[in-house]
Design goal:
Blueprint (H helix, E strand, L loop, with lengths): L10 E3 L5 E6 L16 H13 L3 E6 L2 H8 L10 H20 L6 E6 L1 H5 L1 H16 L3 E6 L12 H12 L4 E6 L20 E2 L4 H5 L13 H13 L3 E6 L3 H8 L2 E7 L5 H11 L6 E4 L1 H10 L8 E5 L7 E8 L2 E9 L4 H7 L7 H5 L13 E3 L2
Parallel strand pairs: 2-3, 2-6, 3-5, 4-5, 6-8, 7-9, 10-12
Antiparallel strand pairs: 1-9, 8-9, 10-11, 12-13, 13-14
Helix pairs in contact: 1-9, 2-3, 6-8
C-alpha cells in the first residue's frame, strides 16, 4: 500500500487511553538502498507529540537498527544472513536509530534495550518496569528495541511485535498501536488475493482469524501479519486492545492523532485490571510469606493501600525480590492469609526494614527499590 491511496477500512472512534505503546517496524524506517529515512517516521512522531501534549504517555518500540547498520558498513550486507553479522549491524545502527527519533522531539529520548530474558526473569522484569515508569515520570520518551547485540534467539520472525506486546503489559498500557505497511487485517493477503476484504474489528482471536494472516511482506522487516496477531493475543491476555494501521498513510496517521482509526481493532478478552488481578490470583506462589499486623491488613482490605514496611512484622522463608508470595496477618488465632503479591524486596531485606519508616529504607539497606514492600498494582486480596 502506498502513502497516498485512501484506506479501505471504515473509520472508528478510538477508545480513551492514558498510556500506550507504539510499535514501528523496519519497513517504515528503512530507506531504499539502506539506512533510515524520516519519510514515515515524521508523521508517527507527530502522532506521538499530539498525545504527549494532551497529557498522555507513549512508549515507542522501534525496529530499524539492522537496516541503519547496513548503510554504515555496506559490505556487511553480503554476510548479514549470519547471526553475528546481524548483531554487529544492530550495534552499528542503534545510535542512528535513536538519533532519528530524537530529531523529532524537544524532550529527551531514552534508549532502552531489552531481551526476552529480561522480561521472563521476574526480578529483571521489575527492574525494567521501574526504569520505564521512572523515564515516563521524568517526561522522557522511551524508545525500546531488542538488545540484538547480545541476544541469540531474539532475532526470529516478528520479535519486535511480540516485544511490543510484552512492553505494553510491562508498563500497564491501555493500548498497543502497531504501525505497519498495509492498512490492517484482511480476510486474506491483499497482495496475492484481489478478493481480500478488510476486517475492521476482531472481537476474538480465533483459529479462523489467525488463518487470515500471511507472511512477511517486507525485505527489511522480520515480521508479518501473523506475528502481529500473536502480539495482539499477548496484549489481549493482559487486557490491552491492539490497533493495526498503515503507518505509510499520512491521512490515516493524522486521523489517529485526532482519535480516529482506519485500520483493525483487536479487542482484549477482559479489562486490563481484571486481567492483571486474575494473573496475580492464579500465578504460583513461592514458599514463604510476609507477616503483617492488623493495621496493615486493614489498610490493604479497606483502603486498597500498598504494603509499607511499617506494617510488616516478619518474613517467612527465603524468597527473593520479584517472587510471588502470600501476605498473612499475624494474630491471636494464628496466621490468616489476606493477600498475595509480588515482593519488591527479598525476605532478608524485608526483615531488616520491617516496622521501619519508608524514609529509612535507603539508610538501612544502602539502596532502595521504592517505598512499597508490595505495590497495590502487584497485589490482590484473597477472600
Amino acid at each position: 500500500m502506498n502513502d497516498t491511496a485512501p484506506s479501505p477500512f471504515a473509520e472508528q472512534v478510538l477508545p480513551p487511553w492514558r498510556r500506550a505503546v507504539l510499535k514501528v517496524g523496519s519497513s517504515l524506517l528503512a530507506a531504499d538502498g539502506g539506512g533510515l529515512t524520516p519519510r514515515f517516521a515524521l508523521g508517527l512522531a507527530q502522532f506521538v507529540s499530539a498525545n504527549l501534549l494532551a497529557g498522555r504517555e507513549v512508549v515507542i518500540v522501534s525496529s530499524g537498527a539492522v537496516a541503519a547498520g547496513r548503510a554504515i558498513v555496506p559490505r556487511a550486507a553480503e554476510a548479514s544472513a549470519t547471526m553475528a553479522a546481524r548483531q554487529a549491524l544492530a550495534a552499528l545502527g542503534q545510535a542512528q536509530l535513536i538519533a532519528l527519533w530524537q530529531r523529532f522531539f524537544e524532550r529527551p529520548v531514552a534508549q532502552v534495550l531489552l531481551t526476552h530474558d529480561d522480561l521472563r526473569n521476574r526480578r529483571r522484569y521489575l527492574n525494567a518496569r521501574a526504569t520505564l515508569n521512572e523515564l515516563l515520570a521524568l517526561g522522557a520518551l522511551p524508545v525500546v528495541n531488542e538488545n540484538d547485540t547480545v541476544s541469540v534467539d531474539e532475532l526470529k520472525l516478528g520479535d519486535n511485535d511480540n516485544l511490543a506486546a510484552i512492553v505494553a503489559a510491562l508498563v500497564d498500557a491501555d493500548a498497543l498501536f502497531i504501525a505497519t505497511d498495509i492498512d490492517g487485517l484482511y480476510t486474506a493477503d491483499p497482495r496475492r488475493d484481489p478478493q481480500a476484504r478488510p476486517v475492521d474489528e476482531v472481537v476474538e482471536l480465533t483459529a479462523a482469524v489467525m488463518a487470515m494472516a500471511g507472511g512477511s511482506g517486507s525485505t527489511v522487516g522480520t515480521g508479518g501479519m501473523h506475528t502481529k496477531l500473536q502480539a495482539a493475543a499477548k496484549a489481549g491476555a493482559a487486557g490491552i486492545d491492539t490497533f493495526l494501521f498503515n503507518g505509510r498513510s499520512g491521512d490515516v496517521v493524522r486521523g489517529l492523532a485526532q482519535g480516529r482509526l482506519r485500520g483493525t481493532r483487536l479487542h482484549a478478552g477482559r479489562s486490563r485490571i481484571a486481567a492483571r488481578k486474575y494473573w496475580l490470583r492464579h500465578a504460583p506462589v513461592e514458599p514463604g510469606a510476609i507477616l503483617v499486623d492488623a493495621g496493615a491488613a486493614r489498610a490493604l482490605r479497606e483502603k486498597g493501600a500498598s504494603l509499607l514496611p511499617g506494617g510488616v512484622v516478619d518474613a517467612l522463608g527465603e524468597f527473593r525480590r520479584g517472587d510471588m508470595i502470600e501476605v498473612r496477618m499475624d494474630g491471636e488465632g494464628g496466621q490468616a492469609c489476606v493477600a498475595r503479591g509480588i515482593s519488591q524486596y527479598s525476605a532478608v531485606d524485608v526483615r531488616r526494614i520491617g516496622r521501619r519508616h519508608t524514609r529509612e529504607i535507603q539508610t538501612i539497606l544502602g539502596y532502595t527499590y521504592g517505598d512499597n514492600v508490595i505495590h497495590r498494582d502487584d497485589l490482590v486480596l484473597l477472600p
